[in-house]
Amino acid sequence: MGKKTLRNERGIALIVALMILLVLTLIGISAISTTTFENRISGNERVGNNAFYAAEAGIEVGFSRLPTVSSFSGSAGDANYQSGALSDTTPQSSVYLGKTVVPEGESIELNDAELYQLNATGRYMGARKEIEAHVRYLHPKF
Length: 142
What we know:
Blueprint: H1 2-8, H2 12-65, E1 73-76, E2 79-83, E3 95-100, E4 110-124, E5 127-140
């Protein structure tokens, strides 16, 4: 009788081994898929950050050119920037918003302030980021 039960269970080890192999294969495929997805996310974040830093460099250029409101463009490493909004295809001038009086208590030595709106768009490998800054430019008294 012992031989009869052994003959009926001969293939069970193979089936169990194949089932375990299938489960491990599915876990491996899932891990590879997750790793690939995370790699793409981090790559997109890096590209977006480079575009943002290029736009920030453009804002700094705009700050350095005040009180003129001319358009500008340039590069920051591998990324490019230009004055203007995301929707602008060519560099646009900064916007002069008018004059304002310096609020009381801020500084006695300063004349009227001029208000400007600076927009800069950074581009890097297909990513585009825009920064908008509202600047109060103060003229010192001489």
